[in-house]
Amino acid sequence: MDITSLLRDIITLDLDDLEPIYTLFVKEFRQIKIELEPIDVNGNFESSYYNILEKKPSSPPLNAQKFLGEPDDNDYDSAMAKLLNIYEKLAAVPRVTREILAIIVDRGRVNQMHELRDQYTILPKTLEKIMRIGQEELFTEIDILEDAGLASLREAHIDDRKIYYLAVKGEQLNYLLSWLVEQKISVRTFLNTMDFTVLDEKIIDGSI
């Protein structure tokens, strides 16, 4: 079989059969390109994954006094450290994954059941329906949130029935989301931009 006959046979294939061939070609040609392309002195090359990485947020809170209040005791230092930890956890996950937290706030509820008191929660099945995505894709996002310590699948009971909820994890993260809602600050915008300086209080001299 020569190239001409091979191409003729490929052209007549159905779309479903063409897709894995296309995927194979893309993978193999990319590998060839990587092996042949030059690398600069800093180790950069054109097809590097670093060139397409989502940019990591870089606007952490500076004092967060609008949210935490005046820094008059040790509680402020502890709360600020926890807030910075939340920022780092959120910054580490993809933007589209952070949006799920906003959806939980927007379309879920603050659960008052004993096991999940004062946590934003939603049924995974509800997310699957309203986001119009498959279960596998949804649980990929849930895995990312759980691994980052931002959400957890929790078990609860209604009468004798066992139900699983996806809950926003952590007292301070839940409080932060509630505070944003009370202040009429869009949770979706906040989590997309990751501009935590909206929590800061400006000092009288104009600095922050």
Task: Report on the architecture of this protein.
By secondary structure, the chain is of the alpha+beta class. It folds into two domains: 3-51, no CATH class; 65-199, Winged helix-like DNA-binding domain superfamily/Winged helix DNA-binding domain (Arc Repressor Mutant, subunit A, Orthogonal Bundle), CATH 1.10.10. It contains nine helices and four strands. It has helices at residues 3-11, 15-36, 65-68, 74-92, 95-107, 124-131, 135-147, 171-182, 187-193, and strands spanning 109-111, 119-122, 151-158, 161-168. A four-stranded antiparallel sheet has the order 1-2-4-3. Helix 5 runs antiparallel to helix 9 (187-193). The protein starts with a helix and ends in a 15-residue tail after the last helix. The mean pLDDT is 88.
List the topology elements:
Layout: H1 3-11, H2 15-36, H3 65-68, H4 74-92, H5 95-107, E1 109-111, E2 119-122, H6 124-131, H7 135-147, E3 151-158, E4 161-168, H8 171-182, H9 187-193
Antiparallel strand pairs: 1-2, 2-4, 3-4
Helix pairs in contact: 5-9
